[in-house]
Every structure is written in C-alpha cells, then in structure tokens.
Description:
Strand content: over 45%
Amino acid sequence: EYKNNKTKDGLKRVSGGGVDLEASENDNYVTVKSNSWNNEVDLEIEVPVGFDVQAHTYNNGDLTLSNIQGELALTNYNGEITALNISGSVVATTYNGEIKLTFDKVKENTPMSFITYNGDIDVSFPSAVKGSMKLKTEQGDIYTDFDMKITSTGPKKTEDTKSGRYKIVIDDWKKGDINGGGPEITMKTNNGDVYIRKKG
C-alpha cells in the first residue's frame, strides 16, 4: 500500500488545477490572456519597440512594465502599477495599490491620467515636459520639485433646475502648469501622497 500517493479517502490524485492561457494575433494586434481565476499566473512578455500596450489584471497581481515605447493603458483591480523608462504616454488606474512611473520621453499633446483609490502616485518626468497638472488627494499631500504655481478650484455650487435647490460640492482640485502648460495630466488618490519629480 502506497499511502504517500493516496489522498481524499484513499483516492489517488491524478492531476491538479491547470493553467488557462491563450495568445493570438489578428491584424498586428496581439492578445495574451488567462482565465485562470483559481491559479496564480505570472506572465513575462517581451514586445518590440514602438508597441502600444493594454494590460489588465483583476485579482491580487502587480503590473510591471519597463523600456516601452508606445501608448500604455494599464488597469489593476488589486495591486500596484509600475512602469519604468517609458517613452510615450500612460493611462493608469488601480483600485488598491501604488502607481509608480518614470518617463524617458513624453508623447507631445497627449493627455494622461493616473488614478488610485488607496496608494501613492509617484511620477518622474523629463525636466522639459509640458503639461497642465490636475491633482487631488483626499488624505495625503502633494510634492514636486518642478516650478509650478498651484491654484485651487475650491468648492463648487450647482443648482438643480427641477427643484430650484442649490448644492455645494466640495471637489477641491489643485492645478498648475509645468513649463508653460500643455495637455492635461490628471493625478488622483483617495488615500495617499502625490509625487511629481524631475527625472535626471
């Protein structure tokens, strides 16, 4: 009798959970996805230069990218987003984790946004970047070493035309231009600090 090979009331284990992974290409658009909800899957993917990336993870995973030249759309539902040495643009949203980005070059005239609900936002730009910053943290502070005059939007008053009631909304954004301004760059966290750094 081989007790080491028996489990679950004497039944022998034949196999465990598998990995569901699919990769496909259509008209120069590459899709790599996994539907393995019960098994953790770590993917390491290399892409050519000038490759736009849309990356999403849904359950306890981090997104880490580096040395990408292209447009990045990154969504994480429970983890961090890190994108280092990027030449292009980034839109990053996570619900529970830090966002850390460093840019070698920023795509001109392209709006970007970095939003997390629980974590810091830490972004390093080239010193010559042009942008109009729109910044908000509910429970934290904003730090920068760029020369940026900050203004505050303050509370807003809205009127409900049907009932005639007025409503005051506290939606205090901080705004400031870098190097004369440019496309809007939005950074928002509910619980964390915002860092806007000069790279180099």
